[in-house]
């Protein structure tokens, strides 16, 4: 992906522009791939036995649902509640990786260090 960024920069670069520093290019992973990576790592024996620390992640409710909840298809025989989404799926907590305890530190970085 960095090569694509460099190629795009070189096409639009003017002679007076500085050379592109490859170390400063930060390519972000797509959300769904990042969520799958984190979920698979949290399901590893190392995290399940020793615990884990998530710093700055999940960033939003969508990330949290993708990691700590599993989609569950609804049974056709059961009536759908009115507030249920139209995609015929609900979420259930993934008991395998849900943490027992959650500690949130809300302070300045200097104070926490």
Task: Give structural notes.
With 113 residues, the chain is mainly α. The protein has one domain. The protein has 5 helices and 2 strands; from the N terminus they run ααααββα. Helix 2 packs across helix 4.
Shape: extended
Mean pLDDT: 77
The largest sheet has its strands arranged as 1-2
Number of helices: 5
Instruction: Give the helices and strands as they follow along the chain.
Output: HHHHEEH
Helix content class = 25-40%
Overall number of domains: 1
- Count of beta strands: 2
Structural class: mainly alpha
How far is the N terminus from the C terminus?
Answer: 35 Å
Strand content: 5-15%
> Radius of gyration in whole Å, from Cα?
21 Å
Question: How would you characterize the largest beta sheet?
Answer: 2 strands, antiparallel
Model regions low in confidence, pLDDT < 50 over at least 5 residues: none
Keywords:
113 residues; mainly alpha; two-stranded antiparallel sheet; 2 strands
Topology:
Elements (H helix, E strand, L loop, with lengths): L1 H11 L18 H12 L2 H6 L10 H8 E5 L15 E5 L15 H4 L1
Antiparallel strand pairs: 1-2
Helix pairs in contact: 2-4
Condensed summary:
By secondary structure, this protein is mainly alpha-helical. The protein has 5 helices and 2 strands, in the order H-H-H-H-E-E-H.
């Amino acid at each position: 992906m960095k090569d694509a960024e460099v190629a795009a920069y070189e096409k639009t670069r003017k002679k007076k522009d500085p050379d592109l520093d490859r170390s400063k290019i930060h390519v972000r992973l797509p959300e769904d791939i990042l969520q799958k990576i984190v979920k698979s790592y949290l399901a590893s024996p190392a995290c399940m036995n020793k615990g884990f620390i998530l710093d700055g992640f999940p960033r939003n409710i969508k990330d949290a649902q993708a990691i700590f909840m599993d989609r569950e298809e609804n049974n056709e025989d059961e009536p759908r509640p009115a507030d249920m989404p139209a995609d015929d799926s609900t979420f259930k907590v993934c008991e395998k990786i849900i943490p027992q305890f959650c500690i949130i530190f809300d302070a300045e970085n200097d104070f926490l260090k």
